[in-house]
Amino acid sequence: MTQPHIPTLILAESLMLLQLSGLVYLIGQRVRDIMQGPRAWSAGLLCYALAQFCLSMEWNDVPEAAFLTDFLASLGCASFLIGLYDFTERPRRWRMLGSLLVAHVLGVLTLKLLTDDEMARLVMFSLIQFLFSLAILSALRLHVQVKRRLGIRLLRGLAYSWAAVNLFRLVIRLFYPLHGSSGFDIRELVFFILVLFFGIWLALACLLLIHERIAADLLFATKRDPLTGCLNRRGFAEALQAEGKRLIRNWAPTSMLAIDFDHFKQLNDRYGHAAGDEALIQFSAMVREELRDVDIFARLGGEEFAIVLLNAPEAGARIVAERLRKRVEDLVLHTASGPIWFTASIGVAVLAEYENDLEPLLHEADRALYEAKQAGRNRVEIFREAAVPA
Fold this sequence. Notes:
Elements: H1 6-30, H2 38-59, H3 66-87, H4 94-114, H5 118-139, H6 149-175, H7 182-223, H8 233-249, E1 254-261, H9 264-271, H10 273-290, E2 296-301, E3 304-310, H11 314-330, E4 332-335, E5 338-341, E6 344-350, H12 359-374, E7 380-382
Helix pairs in contact: 1-2, 1-7, 2-3, 2-7, 3-4, 3-5, 4-5, 5-6, 6-7, 9-10, 10-11
């Protein structure tokens, strides 16, 4: 049986990786305004393709390509790591990346001066690739949403597998040297086939990460108010449903705040819609400073907002509402027409004991808000059930 020609296989791998690099680059160009990282991944795949090309030259009796083969493979790992740091919006760890690349270059040059043994070169290559795999695993220690975990899990699996493959190859070569035999060629054939699979799956993992980020951003956009960044009515409705299910399992005092700016139309008419938008933005930022991460904050439309305070009985909700009202009263908008002050009215409703439906609670808070408006505005009112006549 005729054995495959390994240099030809390696060259085919190089061409395949080159195409995948171009694909990831083109997609990265399309999404460069909303995320960073794909173009660095494309550069990494390009380095892998060039490394495979240099390796094919090396197998065709061009020993001068040996240094480029190993260095380009390490440079590809470094580029991929840079892409991960950019994609996750974390600072690049230049010291660590530079140390690994410098260590590889110095190691290869030292081995070239001291010995031309192929085994020493393989040991250096495998160790550097193993360290890069560990660095990638460290960069993948992220807390992400469940719907965005598949790409991260795939990359982790590839990093673990690549580290294991390099260690296994090193052990096999150390304990079972078969230089010049058919066994040696078959083992290298298996390794290069695995390299091709790793390259394909690495590109697929990059594309999956891009897809998950775009899907998450689209989902985020459908549930968020673009001006203030808080939940919109749809996101608020879904949050109420989720919180209602939690209350069934573990009930806790819960309060709803309905907030409406006083005389907001007059503010827009007098100072312009830009001033009105700035008032909404600064108000939303101020509210987020006051709330906890577990609380729910939404803009329901115009100048109407709602807040769900978790684990908050009436006394606590009143304190929060009064603090928000006072902060709005003290808020100053600096515009070209001069400073602007405005106020807000707040209605508060408290969930009845062991109830879990929050939709009626919003209506009750709206009724309390109406009472605050009727009572003179810039005040807090608590919803009270009307007494039933005897």
